[in-house]
Write a structure and sequence with these properties.
It is a single chain. The chain is mostly helical and 157 residues long. It contains four helices and three strands, in the order H-H-E-H-H-E-E. A three-stranded antiparallel beta sheet has the order 1-3-2, with helices on one face. A hairpin with a 3-residue loop joins strand 2 and strand 3. Helix 1 packs across helix 3. The chain is globular and about 45 Å long.
Length: 157
């Protein structure tokens, strides 16, 4: 548990640095969600090394409210998806780390562009359906609940 607390504490520092240096962003939502993201990526979610856009045989994550991108970026960097030093490029011209995550940036860990609140649910339902049709047994809850929601912000299948 101490390791998770340390990861979350460092994530909070990353979020404050990114938003302060950019002089732009939404720190409140990111700071309020760091424990959720840390628990998901470092304890709960089954992830494979590297990044596979299809997410076969692993949990996949979708973010609805893209304006809390700082928390997702720090979590992805600390989970090894891309170098930590890239966090210093947040919201800079030509950076992959913009105010809302986008697939056009080819950032590992990002499966959809996000921003419209609530869109994550429809995308997650589509992804869960695809996993079911592809006989992918890896769904969060074997009781039939295929979606997990934390305060209308994220969806995991």
């Amino acid at each position: 548990m101490e390791n998770l607390k340390d990861i979350a504490a460092q994530g909070r520092r990353d979020i404050v640095r990114m938003v302060y240096e950019a002089q732009s962003g939404h720190p409140g939502g990111s700071l309020g969600c760091i424990e959720f993201f840390t628990a998901l990526y470092f304890k709960i979610m089954n992830r494979k090394p590297g990044f596979d856009i299809d997410g076969k045989d692993e949990d996949i994550f979708f973010l609805s409210n893209g304006h809390i991108s700082p928390v997702w970026y720090t979590t992805l960097a600390r989970a090894g998806y891309f170098p930590l030093k890239e966090l210093s490029t947040y919201r800079k011209i030509n950076s992959r780390l913009q105010g809302h995550p986008a697939t056009a940036e080819h950032l590992p860990g990002i499966r959809i562009a996000s921003g419209s609140l609530g869109q994550g649910m429809s995308v997650a339902i589509g992804a869960a359906t695809a996993k079911k049709l592809n006989n992918d047994p890896h769904i969060v809850d074997k009781t039939g609940k295929q979606l997990c929601m934390l305060p209308c912000i994220m969806w995991i299948i």
